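Example 3.2
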Amino acid sequence: MAVKKTDSARLAKRLGGNLSARRKQLGWTQEKLAERVGVDTETVSRIERGAHLPSLPTLDSLAVALCCSVGDLLSKEGPEVASDAVTFGAWISDLGPEDRAFIMSVVRNCCDHLDARSK
């Protein structure tokens, strides 16, 4: 069965909207997402506008970078709102092990301090 051009255009628009929404949930620019996926910023822009459907490997890389599934990016409902934990994990995922450990200890210390203050 051949895919109609209008079906592809609808899918491209849906994917673009979901991709943009998830990227914005994480507080990332198109440039930041492009860097994490290994594509140029214009490619992310074209995908978000619905002007381009990515290859399957690129689609998978986008989903991994955005901490969601390919299905979420293609869904009519769009991706679920990223939890605080997912957002935090996405932010630190590119850091090296020592830097991640440092950030985790800082956050833990802050949480301990605020918890003690509230008692």
